[in-house]
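testing teh design pipeline on a random one, pls ignore if ur not involved
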């Protein structure tokens, strides 16, 4: 199955996430305005090593990105699942 993007996201490469999800984890309200954030690619093997998705990352259809220290990232509701 081909990836839905044209090129491989490399660790440390800037990529963008967008969605109408929460502004903060402790918020109960979704946004009415589309938000976007610049985040960094992370090596998929790191996501599958017990951090993050706990061996559920499918590199054919998913990317691993964010900040291991926390900070700006996607949030609940950005995936389309409330």
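output:
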């Amino acid at each position: 199955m081909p990836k839905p993007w044209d090129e491989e996201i490399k660790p440390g490469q800037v990529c963008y996430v967008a969605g109408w999800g929460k502004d903060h984890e402790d918020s109960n309200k979704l946004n009415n305005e589309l938000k976007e954030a610049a985040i960094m690619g992370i090596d998929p093997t790191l996501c599958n090593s017990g951090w993050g998705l706990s061996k559920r990352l499918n590199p054919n259809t998913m990317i691993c990105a964010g900040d291991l220290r926390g900070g700006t990232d996607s949030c609940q509701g950005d995936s389309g699942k409330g």
